[in-house]
């Protein structure tokens, strides 16, 4: 691990230059090397805009239902605003985005901190605030203020703005030191804190909220410094038309409330996957499941699944709420996307009959597409994981298993590999890139737990029916449910 750290980090304890504080304003030049608007006209004439970005959860990645990410949504909207197609170059680290914009690109959108003095580029208006946050490994004590950081092994990412905050903080606390990386991403950094290779890290608050589910041993510490700003970058010397268009578009997004809704969708919640209390499950079992019991049983007959498995998936997806809508726009009891619904012939996603039938057939179609070498429960669990994260990312995880000399047909091995898709070291070697690979692991585990509960309930009810007990008190009949452990 020390060799790995030495490869990725450079120590920044002293010998830094003091940065001059400048107001965060987008400076407009008095002249440019090409007529105003010519660059924009070139983009529109060739019918596409090239955007340099990064494969990260806050920028762009292949999600459960195709390309997604906070900045990806904005990039796609901007391309539509210009009336052109979107051409992404997502193979960048943070330190290569701006050189690419200066040399050959149209736009840089990669969680870039707004720095007006950066040579060769202009920045757009601020998109969102970036609040630096110190996080540390759970179990460390006495960490209550920035002064306590001096005794710790800390990491951060170069060029994100958090390194600048640390340099400013070092003015007040000369003993403070840290390590920087230009190649890692936030998930890699948090993984090092989780493992003990680092004591803490400085990242942004929204990044922690997006990743905290996967790193339970990383604790929120305290905010550092004043918020920075995220912005896009365009090249200097090619006219101001593209910059003006980007600023107008972002202004419209802010004024209409679309930007606020995107922020809420991506960063306003820790995660849509949750551990649901047993009593809540039992309450929903009595109040909601009877409405859909027959539908799950019919879908099971048509697809060959156990109806309780389909019911468990439905609970994990929507808590058996036929009108549920996720932060990413999937809808219905089985949370189908529009493309999946169209593929399955579902015309109304909030119709529980269509949703349950479509979800069951979609799961069956995934299972049928898996390699024949995957058998038994391994095949079922991998199909369930693919329902959540997509087949492409499952195949990427199987490839990682092969690289690690494991068995790609074993769910146990694939389960260990899926979270590695969050780490740049691994997802850079895959076809589909970054994925929130911890999600399908939790997804499958939760469904297995709910399935076991449904099995227990059904067995218990059958026993009581045999004893001619017709009125059951859930709290009295099922007192051990709170002791059912998650299934690993």
Element layout with pairings:
Elements: H1 2-8, E1 9-11, H2 38-46, E2 48-52, E3 61-63, E4 66-68, H3 70-82, E5 85-89, H4 94-103, E6 107-113, E7 121-123, E8 129-130, E9 132-137, E10 154-157, H5 162-172, E11 179-181, H6 186-195, E12 200-204, H7 205-211, E13 218-223, E14 228-235, H8 241-256, H9 258-267, H10 278-287, H11 289-303, H12 307-318, H13 338-343, H14 352-369, H15 376-389, H16 391-403, H17 411-417, H18 424-427, H19 438-466, H20 474-477
Parallel strand pairs: 2-5, 2-6, 10-11, 10-12
Antiparallel strand pairs: 1-11, 3-4, 6-14, 7-14, 8-14, 9-12, 9-13
What attributes characterize this protein structure?
Lysozyme, 14 strands, alpha/beta, disordered N terminus, 3 domains, single chain, six-stranded mixed β-sheet, 488 residues, D-Maltodextrin-Binding Protein, domain 2, globular
